[in-house]
Amino acid sequence: MQTIRKLIKKVYHVLFSEHTRLRNENTQLKSNISTLESQISALNKELDPPTPIPSNENMFLSMEGWSTQYTIDGKVMGGPVQLLTDKRMKWHIDVVGGVEGKRILELGPLEGAHTITLINHGAKEVVAIEGLRRAWLRCLVVKEILQVQKARFLYGDFCHYVKNYSGQPFDCVLAAGVLYHQTNPAELIHDLAKVTDTVLVWSQVANETHPSQTLTTVNVGSKQYKGKINDYSGARATSAGYCGGVHPIAVWLFPDDMRQAFIDAGFVHIVEEPIANTIHGQSLLFVASKKTNLKKIPLS
Questions:
Q1: Labelling 68: which of 15, 53, 132, 278 has CA 20 to 30 A away?
Q2: Extended strands (E) in 163-211
């Protein structure tokens, strides 16, 4: 009998210890579940914040990563870059004798500031193609807030659009800040000759120090052009305001190679204006055309 009692007591202690352990684990589990629920709730609020009062300001704030500075209902918003007053755009427009009544193809509108400038100077229509989804969505926000009626903002690869375009030629193409984001900028330049007679250009170009020390060449048929490789190092995946190329790397042509690519493509008349270096090195500002009616005007 004594032995049985000892056995029962031992079993009781074992069961009690197991019960205590399970109860403690259950308490910890409840705590973990509560923590996870709080984290999920916070994440849901971040991904899908409470619906705000309808306003232009809230529409603008719905998108992150702005580069361009806008004034929305009297408030200065967006990024630090004042592209709406970009003197390079005014120079481009003056060199071609104005854009009133013209159909223009814009490559890489970013956030629509140059698009608005073209329309404000009388452009009949601007077809603007943006390859970065977030930037394209910001263009749509700007179009809605500022009621930009004469612009079409398309999302996709403008290189494919240009290569396969079969419609009426555009009066000119704006290629500002895009050629140095291409894997083969020379091929895009040659393809542009199929869709327009005139290209408005601003672009970074390679030099001794930029963008890297990795030399390369790109080819269009039998023509070869020298440049350097720029590696984006995954920046597109980590930055809401990323405004580089759609591929992991790009090729920056050397200045003479970029000019020669336009000449080889048939844009034999080039009006170029000296422009200061940027933090990324040397850049070129010019208009290249198959026509002879370009004006030589200083940048002001």
A1: 53
A2: 172-176, 198-204
Whether the CA torsion 56, 61, 65, 71 is positive or negative: it is positive
Distances (CA, A) of 76 to 82, 84, 87, 138: 11, 13, 20, 16
Distance CA 102, CA 20 (A): 81
> What is the CB-side half-sphere exposure of residue 143 using CA atoms within 13 A?
19
CATH homologous superfamily, domain 69-289: Vaccinia Virus protein VP39 (3.40.50.150)
**Separation between Cα atoms, residue 283 and residue 176, nearest integer Å:** 11
The candidate with the shortest Cα–Cα distance to 285, out of 158, 300, 293, 38, is: 300
pLDDT of residue 22: 66
How far is the CA of 202 from the CAs of 50, 147, 174, 277, 279, in angstroms? 41, 27, 9, 12, 15
Nearest to 161 by CA among 80, 86, 105, 87: 105
Domain boundaries, given as residue ranges, for the chain: 1-50, 69-289
For the chain, the 3-state helix, strand and coil shares in percent, each to the nearest 5, are: 40, 25, 35
